[in-house]
Structures are given as C-alpha cells and as structure tokens.
Amino acid sequence: MSVNSFGRLFRFTTWGESHGPALGAVVDGCPPGLPISESALQPFLDARRPGQSKFTTQRQEPDQVRILSGVFEGRTTGTSISLMIENVDQRSKDYSEVAKAYRPGHADYAYDAKYGFRDYRGGGRSSARETAARVAAGGVARLVIPEVTILAYVVEIGGDAIDRANFDPAEIDRNPFFCPDPLAARRWAEQVDAVRKAGSSVGAVVECIATGVPAGWGAPLYGKLDADLAAGMMGINAVKGVEIGDGFAAARLSGEQNADPMRPGPQGPTFDANHAGGIAGGISTGQPIVVRVAFKPTSSILTPQPTITRPDENGRSHATELFTKGRHDPCVGIRGAPVVEAMMALVLADHKLLQRGQCGG
Amino acid sequence: MSVNSFGRLFRFTTWGESHGPALGAVVDGCPPGLPISESALQPFLDARRPGQSKFTTQRQEPDQVRILSGVFEGRTTGTSISLMIENVDQRSKDYSEVAKAYRPGHADYAYDAKYGFRDYRGGGRSSARETAARVAAGGVARLVIPEVTILAYVVEIGGDAIDRANFDPAEIDRNPFFCPDPLAARRWAEQVDAVRKAGSSVGAVVECIATGVPAGWGAPLYGKLDADLAAGMMGINAVKGVEIGDGFAAARLSGEQNADPMRPGPQGPTFDANHAGGIAGGISTGQPIVVRVAFKPTSSILTPQPTITRPDENGRSHATELFTKGRHDPCVGIRGAPVVEAMMALVLADHKLLQRGQCGG
Amino acid sequence: MSVNSFGRLFRFTTWGESHGPALGAVVDGCPPGLPISESALQPFLDARRPGQSKFTTQRQEPDQVRILSGVFEGRTTGTSISLMIENVDQRSKDYSEVAKAYRPGHADYAYDAKYGFRDYRGGGRSSARETAARVAAGGVARLVIPEVTILAYVVEIGGDAIDRANFDPAEIDRNPFFCPDPLAARRWAEQVDAVRKAGSSVGAVVECIATGVPAGWGAPLYGKLDADLAAGMMGINAVKGVEIGDGFAAARLSGEQNADPMRPGPQGPTFDANHAGGIAGGISTGQPIVVRVAFKPTSSILTPQPTITRPDENGRSHATELFTKGRHDPCVGIRGAPVVEAMMALVLADHKLLQRGQCGG
Amino acid sequence: MSVNSFGRLFRFTTWGESHGPALGAVVDGCPPGLPISESALQPFLDARRPGQSKFTTQRQEPDQVRILSGVFEGRTTGTSISLMIENVDQRSKDYSEVAKAYRPGHADYAYDAKYGFRDYRGGGRSSARETAARVAAGGVARLVIPEVTILAYVVEIGGDAIDRANFDPAEIDRNPFFCPDPLAARRWAEQVDAVRKAGSSVGAVVECIATGVPAGWGAPLYGKLDADLAAGMMGINAVKGVEIGDGFAAARLSGEQNADPMRPGPQGPTFDANHAGGIAGGISTGQPIVVRVAFKPTSSILTPQPTITRPDENGRSHATELFTKGRHDPCVGIRGAPVVEAMMALVLADHKLLQRGQCGG
Questions:
Q1: The pLDDT of residue C92
Q2: CB contact under 8 A, D280 and C109
Q3: Closest chain A residue to B12 measured between Cα atoms?
Q4: N or C: at which end does chain B have fewer Cβ atoms within 10 angstroms?
Q5: What value does the mean pLDDT take over residues B191-197?
Q6: Do residues B269 and B216 make contact, with C-beta atoms less than 8 angstroms apart?
C-alpha cells in the first residue's frame, strides 16, 4: 500500500528528509537491458538543483546521484534500482522556534496532528528537497520511453503570463525561470527579485507537454492516464491545481467549441485541435499530452504571521507569531518545472509497461 | 494493480457497461458492524439518476441498487460487499454508424487504439453510467465517516457563475442544477434549455466541501489526501481540471495573501482563512476540505463533426462526419455533483482507515 | 490493498457467502480480444460442483456462471469481467446452535474475534463455496495461457498414496476422486465411504503440474512464482501445507542428489531431473511446474467436540459441545483439485502478463 | 506492483546485489513514535551474519545497518525508513566461468531467460545476501508487535531431526545451528562438518513459533495470515516447502484426530491441541502461530555438474561442467532461521496494522 511509492508496473519509492544524511528512491519494475549511468541521470538533478541563481534558495547542494543497485555493466538488470543523493548543506541552526510553534501554510501542524510529533529541521519529510528523489527516478523513467519528448516550462508567475506568440522552446534553458518567452523572463526577473528582497513570495503556473506518446496508453477506469497525472502533479509540494488540455477553460466552452474533429492522416488520424490535451476516456489519443499545474506562493515569508505553539503539558496551545528565517525559494513554482517533467515521465513509463503487459504492445 | 479499483484500505472495484445487463461495485475493506441497507444507499443513486428533469438525459433507469454480499442482519460483516444495479433502458437502436466511425471528443478512438476493438453501444465501459457504481460505493463509504458532512454543488455553468452572496445550502436540492444560488438556478434553466434545444452542450464547475474531517488524515508523500482527491475527481467522466482550496487562483497570490494564520481555539486551532482548502503537506488540517472540479461540455452534440472511420481491411481510415443522435445530458457536469460527493466520501473513508491503521486513531 | 483480491496484472476480486443470494468474481486485467463464453467457463465449475457423487457434500448447486460485463460479441474487451453464480440450495435450517457456539476447527471463533460478529449460516464468507468464484476466474485465466496445460489430481487420501507406477492421466476424470491411479481410486472409494458413514472425515494431498510454461515467468524477489503459488494455494480452504518440486523431501537430500543437471537440447536446455519443480530463484525454468498441497480433514464431523459459547452479556463464554449436522464433504481435499488447478492458472496468467509488461515478452 | 516489496500497511522494499556497493530496505508504513536505533536492529543482523562458525560461508561481512531516514530523536516518524548495509567483502575473483555457463540448481539460467542477461557476480540479486535487508526490516517490524515473541530454530538437518523431548529454548543460541536439542546439535556438528569437508551440502527444516498473537489478525480471503506467511517463507532463498501447524501430517489425520477442542478460560478460550498452528480461516485464534519451512541443500557444491553455456553468437548452448568454487554455506537452512523469524515479524506487523485499520483494534 506503500504511501511513499507511486506507479504500478514502473514503481518508485522515496525516502529521506531535508536534514537527514541522504535521500533517495528505489525504482522497481524498470525493464532490463537499458543503458544507464549516473552521469546520464545527473542533468535532470542539476536542472532542479537549488542555489543556481538568486531566484532560488541559496542552499548549496551538489545533488550528486549515486546508483547503488540494479545496474550491471552499464545496463539495467530488471531488478530494483536504488538511487541515493547525499545532503551536504544541512546548515546547523537554531530550530527551537519552529520546534515549538507551527509555521502557517506549512505542513507543521498537520504532521503533528497526524504523527504526534515531527522532524522539524527544514520541514523534515515535507520539505521540497524530496523532489530530488523523484527527479532522479524520473531520469530512469525517461529511459523507458525514448519515443517521448517531455518539456515543462513556467507560463505564469504572480499572475503575469507569457505571451504565446513569443513562445520559443530554445529559450527555456536560457533563463533561470524555465520561461519560453524572453520578454516575460525579463519581467519576471524584476518581479521575483523584488519579491525576494521584500521577503515575500509568489505563485506560478507550470505547463508540461509530452509529444510522441502513441494512442492507447492509459488504463480505464481507475488508472486513467489523466487521473494518474493529476495524482502525480497534485502530490508535488505547493501544488494546488491540475488541469488537462483546456482544463477549467473547457468548462466555459460549448460542445462545438470544445470538439477536436479528426481527419484521416498518413500515420493515424490528425486532429483539428487539442482541447482534450491528448487524452480521451483516460487513454492517450496520439496528440500531445498537455498538463498545467498551479503552484501556490512559497509559505515561507519574512512577514510575521499569527500562529500557535505546540500544546504545552496541559495540552493547551498559545498564540504566538512566526516568520521564516531560513533559506527558501521566493517562487517555488520555478524549480517545480523539472519536477513536473519528472512526474510526467514517471506516469508515462508506467503506462507504457501497463499497455504492453495488458494489451501486448 | 487492478485498474478498475480505487482506494487503499477502503477499496472498491467497478464493472459494467452502458448496455450490458448490469453494472456494479465490489467494496472491500469496509469495517464490520456498520448498519446498512439498500434503502439507505438508494437516495445517493436517486440524486445521480438520469431522466429526472429536462436538463438531463432522458434515459429512464430506476438505478435500484442491490446488496449481494458482505451484509448480515443489517450490518456490514467486514467482508467484500457486492453492489449491483441492473440496466433496464438499454434502448435497442442502430449502432452501425458509431460502430464504424469514431465520435470526436469521445473515447471511441482511444479505446480502439488501446484494445483493438470496443463495445460501441452507448460508449460501453467509457459511458458515464459507470458512475452509478461509484455512487453506490460512495454510499457505503459515508457509513465509515459519520463525523463528516459532504456537500457538492454546481458553481458555474457555461461560464455563468453563482453569486457567493446568495449561497444557500438549502437551495441545492430545490432545483435541478444542484445550485446553491436561486438566482443563478433560474438563469441556468434558461441557458441549459436553450443549449438542449439547439442540440449543443455546455461545461460546468462543481465545488465540494467536506466539513468535520479531523486534522491528520492523508498519507504523505504518495498517498496525499489532495493527490488522492485529484486522482478520484480527474477520473470522473468529462473532468478536465481539479483544484484544492484557492487552486489556480493561489498561483496569483503573494505569500502574505495566501497565508492561513492560526489562533488558539477552544477545540484545536482556528484559522483566519482557508486558502489551503483544508490540506497542508497532503494532510488534513481540520478545516473544511474544498475541491473544485471542471467538467467539459458533453461531447455528444447534434452538429455534425468531421471524423474518421475505423480502419478498413487495408488498414485505412476514411473521412466522414458524425453527430450524436442518442439521449444525452446537455451539461454532464450537473449530474457530476453527486458523483463528486461520492468520490469525496470514498477518498475520506479510505484515509480514515489508513490513519487508524498506521497511527492508531 | 483489497484483501479479497489476488494477482497483480491479472487480478480478481471475489465476493459472496455460503447462504447469500449469489457469489462472484470480478476479473481485472484480462487482455482484450480473447474468445470467451459462459459455456466455455462452465466445465471448470462443473468439475468443482458439489453433489456429483456420494463422496462429496449433497448440497445441490447448479453453479451456473453468468458473465455480466467485460465481454462484447464473444470476446473479452480488456475491461473488468464480472462473473456471478447464484446460490440456489441454501437449505433453510436451524442455525441457532452454530450462532451461539463456535465449531472447533472452523473459522467461527476467529471471525468473531476479528469482526465482532459473523454470518454463521453455513460458515458465511469462510465457506468453501467461495472457491466456485475463483474457479470461474481461473477459467478466464486459462484463456490467457493457451500454451500451458494444467493438471491437478489427488495423490493421497488419509495417508493412502497412489502408486506412481500406475499413474494414468486419462484415469483422473474417470473416478470421483481425481485419482490418476485406478487401484488407489478403488481403495479410496471404500475408505471414504466408511469415513462418510462414520460421520468422520479425512485429509488429502493434491498435486498439480503445469507444462508448457516457458522459462522466465516469475518476479523476484517478492513476486516469486513459487511464493505466489504458495500464497494462492495456502489461501484455499482447509490447506495447511504447500511444497514446490521435491519440497520437504528436498530438505533430506544432499546437494548432489538434489541437482538438476542441464544438457543442451534442440529447443532450449533439457534437465536430467526436476527436483526444483520448474522454478529457480522464483523464476520458471521451462520445466513442468510441480506443486503439492496438503488438505486437512474436513472439520465438520458428527462426533461431538468440546467447545465454548459466544460470550454472554457478561462477556463470559461457557463450555458446551457441538457437532456438525449439515451437509459436508467427508474429504474436502477431493474437490480441492479443481480449485488448485484454478489457482495455478490464475498465478501463471498473472506472471505471463507481468513478464510481457516488464521484459517485453 | 513493486515485485521487490512485501506487505500491505507495513510494507518494505529491498534492493541490492551480492557484489554491489550495498544493499538495503525501505520500510513504509511503520507507525510513528516507536523508539528505534541502529544498535537495536544490529543483533538481528548479527544472528544472520556469515562467517561466525565453520558451518557457514566464510565471507566476512560486518553487516552494519545504517538508518538513513524516517527516524528523529530516536523515534520513528511515520515516514519511510531507509536501511542500508554496505558490502565490504566482495572478493575480487574470476567470474568468467559463471558468466559463461549456468550453475545447475541456481537461478542463473532462469535470470538469463527472464532478463536477457544477469549480474553473475556471486549470484547478483538472487544471492541470499539479500536476506540481510529483510532481516533489518524485520527488526523494525518487531517494534510494532512488542506483544509477540518469535522464536525460530532448526528442527532437522539432512534428515536428522531433533528429539522434541530434549527441546530447550535456551539451547538455541548456544550452538551454531539454532538447535533447541543439545544432542542433535552435537550430531549436526559432525554431520555438517563432514558435508563441508566433502564439498557437499545438505538441507534443513526450520520451525518458527510466534506466541502472544491475539485472536483476530489475518484478512480473509486473499490476505489470509497463513497465505501471507506462505508467500513470505516460500520467497526466502532455497525454500521449497511451507506448512502451518500439522501441515502435511494433517492430511493423514481424521477429523477427530485433527480437532482442536476449545474450553472456556479465564482470558479467552483454551485449546486442547494446536493442530491448526494458531490459524483458522486465515485468522489467528490466539494460539501460538506455528510454521515449518523446508530448505533444500545449497546448490553450490564441489562435485562438477553437467550444464550448458550461455548461447553463443549463433544462439546455441554447449555442454560443459561446472562446480562452485566460491565461499558458501554447506547448509543454507541454518542461517535461514533468523530470516524465517524476520519474515514472521514482518507478516505479523502488517496484519496488526491491518486489523487496527479495518476493525479498529
């Protein structure tokens, strides 16, 4: 039942806390014989890595991934692949405030309510550092789906959206925002810098497109491709919304406007539009898979917030105030882009194997 | 791995097609000793039942639920509960057109691509009739969580939203739209009637609130309460988007605006706001759980759409046109409200048991 | 987590009690396009059906299987297949004794301890009638593995074993004991008849061989083919032991005696022996899969046994005596043979799909 | 679906190969707040550790377990617990022979058939070194079930059984055979020494008893306590048979002989006997759980065995001979005792949580 695992045939389990010695993932179900190496996985971790610009947290983590099992002579063996990333910059600081009171907007109170206590150092298990593990697992997933190209990018920060007319995929890696619109990237640099200096934070929307997914992946009715994507994306730290294709906008369309008419094409059907985001009835249609993910603003801000203390010996909580002194991302959605990509890869790899297992191809 | 099952400790599996003899659900993991009867489940099915107003499909189905196992002397026994609903109004009609070509926007093409063929009568397994089975299962789930009150209602149809100032829960059952705003209900009656007469369709947004959920339900990191809700909701027919709390709007807020400050209260903390929708770090906080779900317009419309035929003996598809003659909902989102309620109950029941199993309470 | 389900990619869930209206199975994950019909499944149910000789229970059940979903135009669709078998001979009798006290050797006390109460009519969910559902599911599983031939037979009743020199597969269906040795069958007829007349019961050992399983099925380390077989067989009512290949006898051999030397053959290796029972490291080797299953004597006997009552209003149990008046099998192992066959098919179908999913064939 | 995972609510996943840098387990679902430390887990690993007498393999592994996550201030946090054991004595030797041909009785051929190739160093993933990981996980499981006492011991080596009259639990830790009969231990010392010197091997039977298990653990019908034990035990390297209570001997008893009559006792019922091994209908009865496990003789022997080479470039295998030069246990069943104990703990911990989750206690 493993609540720290995700996937069916291609399945991974993560472990680790923000300030523990390491974190990692065990990938189970990866087909045998795929060429793999630590250096092939590292670029995905590097893309997510903190401390690379002033717009992300200044925690310095090399995020070097090690492969501890499941690989022999440079190829996957079909057995479980253990990936480990050591934490090196767990700054020793005074956590007594956070230990005694709950940071509003964070998982502190919820963890205490659930487990009775919590590892309060840097958020413990609820820290976004865990996403390094799924990005590593996502790197393995990509080996399973070489026919698929996945691209995630930020389309909106603090309500300022890109202009689709400026969309240039090559731009995405040229700025620290994974932004496909160079003009928006420039505006965001100013906006996020101001936010950062003010000790505030801001939300973002990430879009992810997967091209090359053949028709037929997805497993109705409770393993639908879109449902699995929704679960995967909503489970990323700070995510509050997920939509496929036109998503919430589709609720405002008529049936005629929302139709994706089909035409015969040389290699399968062509579609006049892709309102559906490449998924119908939970199954891929051969069109690009389109997902959009909403990230809330980072809960860590410098403005003190009213909150309560952990219950004292009489079981009573007291009013207090708290603000977050530690290093943090002013816009956690930015570094969310590589994580969204990884989740897309993980879901697709799983469904490719499922399709092969159940339907033979 | 059961792709027709949902849930972990409280788990259900559905079966059945639109035009088969029956459909049903097997509920596994329901605790023993809960009072249950067919008549206690029936109201939930009645709420979802078609043919009750001119705004929904005219297919006449009594949707009588039968309990075939797992109950003894009016109480659940702890073993698997089999629920069955017979189909009675599978109108015998000519399906030759749908058999030969793919209805755009429907799952027809995707099913063929996946399985090589499909039960084309009324959409087969991909029909929204399946939701009757999960509504029945949801009725069982509600027995497990008597402390929780769940209310789903339509907040927007075709872009016309309710006025929150008019919100009246008592109104929801007084109109055929599950609409909490009497003025909006009147406007929608006109709008949907016009859409129906034009053979068109329109989308909708459903909101669902669960109150009474204690803090501590949810299972980080890959069984998060919000991730499970996202999967459950996105898996409902015609759903294209899911958001928790402020959802996509949160992406436009600053950290200060999005904060949910806490104060000591007589029975646990009180919160100044609920931008988070009752979930932090994947765990309930004790605030109301708030989910919004976007339904696309029904794909079945009377306007002919360009589409393609099934491949002929030479593997070639041809251009054709298709429009949907059968009975259908002009706004599938309306009857989605009881289904959203059911999914909320199913997810919460599961997490209550999980919390008890892992943490003892 | 579904504790009423079994299997990974090919997965089934059963429901139903001895004296409920019906019982059944939902099969999920069956590949699409396989020819299937109720009449093709019926022979497997007929083989297990009670009341066919004086050596089995006299309960008269036609055990007609109905397919309610997942099949279209005579072929599996790839969606969940619902199988239902109605109970018709739930004899109305006085259960007050069994309701008030626990039959020793039965699950009565354990069910009460677990669930707080139980459906005491004919054993409720713990009745061996449930095996009809898995035999039906096993019939579907066989469609998935046409390359495999499965044969189960009784090799020992009450300590009287067959003579391997007399082994004749054709004999198995010619006697009411699934006995491959005609001489043993004659001896058993006398023995079991005497047991039956004495109101006693006797144990049995069933052996099952699957030929045609290619090398490579099985999923180390916690989905090993032998581990899954052990789980499947041990879960059959009245089973107390499972062994693969030489099983317990292998513990008495030396490494030299237990070796299965290999030789090059025209189509893969040949083996000098099959001590391993066709499985090494949890993976099939291409040799026949050999499993032996020990059934205890039926717990229902006419000799009164000391036992205790359900706790009274003061929570106190009292000494009493109980003997089983109802219809029962004098040797439950006999009808176990078709159930063992079904479980073998169910495990192998699952592993065929797994192998295809993970390793591509 | 994770084939390298075991358990439902208390679930672990293992990884690692015989000659990789490390091996480990991730334990998911452990309740929060349990006191835990590396030094508390170490004794279980020490009991299984090789090289402690001349009767086991001479590979020298300290088997130091490290806890990498899921623990804070000496208590479990409720999140995933990562356990790692480094390999230190992977002797660099010439594996070219094993790389080119299949050791009979080992998983070499099966792994190649399944995966297309294999890590041949010391058996790779199929090595019994993996059991160190489950012994570590078993140490965590024991924390969950402090009410239960588990004791595994060897009852038979090479056909030479202990005398039950000599049974002394205190004796088990006083000899290198986990033998409760001092006289048998002396005989075995001679026998196993002779076997070892002859380069041969010998099988064994391990018995395991768990006392203190309350009535009510186990989850019918496909999560039965005995079925889960069977799966867990059969999945241990070299195991070929599992029996519960009287097991295969029960097949030779009459219903009267096999009865376990019940009497009212001061704290629940007392039983006249325990033929059932503490489990009825898949649920614990409150009696001691009794399991016996058959280990085949180690397949590694010094006598050359006929075998075949890996297919050459023409896909053809050739006849050859192979014997195992490496370090190995002359009787792998001996060190199986701590592994059987661990699997018992793992299954029981899982069922305790399941019972709490489903039935509330």
A1: 62
A2: yes
A3: A222
A4: C
A5: 95
A6: no
* B92 marked among binding-site residues: no
Q: Does the beta-carbon distance from B72 to C117 stay under 8 Å?
A: yes
Q: Is B54 annotated as a binding residue?
A: yes
Q: Phi, psi (5° rounding) for residue C202?
A: -150, 150
Interface of B with D (CB under 8 A): 1, 9, 29, 31-32, 78-79, 220-221, 353-354, 356-360
CA-closest candidate to residue A64, choices A92, A19, A28, A24: A24
Q: Which stretch of B257-271, B316-330, B333-347 has the lowest confidence by average pLDDT?
A: B316-330
Among A12-26, A169-183, B124-138, C92-106, whose mean pLDDT is lowest? C92-106
Report chain C residues whose CB lies below 8 A from the CB of D233.
230
Nearest CA in chain A to D71: A119
Asked if ipTM goes beyond 0.90, one says: yes
The span from the CA of C148 to the CA of C349, in Å, is: 10
C25 DSSP β-pair partners: C14, C83
> Are A104 and A307 within 8 A, CB to CB?
yes
- For residue B92, what pLDDT is reported? 62
In sign, the C-alpha dihedral spanning B317, B323, B326, B331 is: positive
DSSP state of C304: -
User: Are D26 and A3 a contacting pair at CB < 8 A?
Assistant: no
Integer Cα distance of A182 and A188 in angstroms: 10
Sign of the four-CA dihedral B239, B240, B242, B248: negative
HSE at residue C247, side-chain half, CA atoms within 13 A, is: 21
Instruction: Consult the annotation and say whether C126 binds a ligand.
Output: yes
- Most C CBs within 10 Å: which of B8, B72, B130, as the mutation test of the C interface? B72
- Inter-chain touch B255–A159, beta carbons under 8 Å: no
Q: Following DSSP, what letter does each residue of B188-212 receive, concatenated?
A: HHHHHHHHHHTT--B-EEEEEEEE-
Residue bearing tokens 């009588």: B64
Q: Please check whether residue C14 is in contact with residue B68, taking contact to mean a CB–CB distance below 8 angstroms.
A: no
Q: For a pLDDT cut of 70, what percent of chain D falls above it? A: 99
Q: How far apart are CA B282 and CA D76, in angstroms?
A: 19
Contacts of residue C267, defined as CB under 8 A and 6 or more positions apart, other chains included, come to none
pLDDT (average), residues B312-341:
90
Cis status, amide bond into A221, omega within 30 of 0 = yes
Cβ(A208)–Cβ(A236) below 8 Å: no
> Would you call D109 and C220 a contact, using CB atoms and an 8 Å cutoff?
no
Q: How far apart are CA D49 and CA B94, in angstroms?
A: 72
Mean pLDDT across chain A, nearest whole number?
Answer: 95
Coil, strand or helix: which one is D198?
coil
Residues in chain A predicted with pLDDT less than 50, given as ranges, are none
Two tokens at D20? 């990789």
Interchain pair B353, D357: CB under 8 A? yes
Measure the N-to-C terminal CA separation of chain B; round to a whole number of Å: 28
Strand-strand pairing, B22-28 and B11-16: antiparallel
Q: Which two tokens stand for residue C127?
A: 């009745």
H or E stretch covering A298? none
pLDDT digits (tens, 9 = 90+) for D278-318: 999 999 999 999 999 999 999 989 999 999 999 999 989 99
- Rounded CA separation B68/C16 (Å): 7
Query: What count of residues does chain B have?
Result: 361
**What is the C-alpha separation between D219 and D211, in angstroms, rounded?**
19
C10 vs A92: which has the higher pLDDT: C10
pLDDT band at residue D92 under the 50/70/90 scheme? low
Number of other residues whose CB lies within 10 A of the CB of residue A71 = 23
Q: Which residue has the higher pLDDT, C326 or C138?
A: C138
Q: What's the whole-model pTM score?
A: 0.98
- Set of chain D residues whose Cβ sits within 8 Å of the Cβ of A23: 69
In terms of C-beta density within 10 A (0-12 exposed, 13-18 middle, 19 or more buried), how is residue B151 classed?
middle
User: What's the N-to-C CA distance of chain D in angstroms?
Assistant: 28
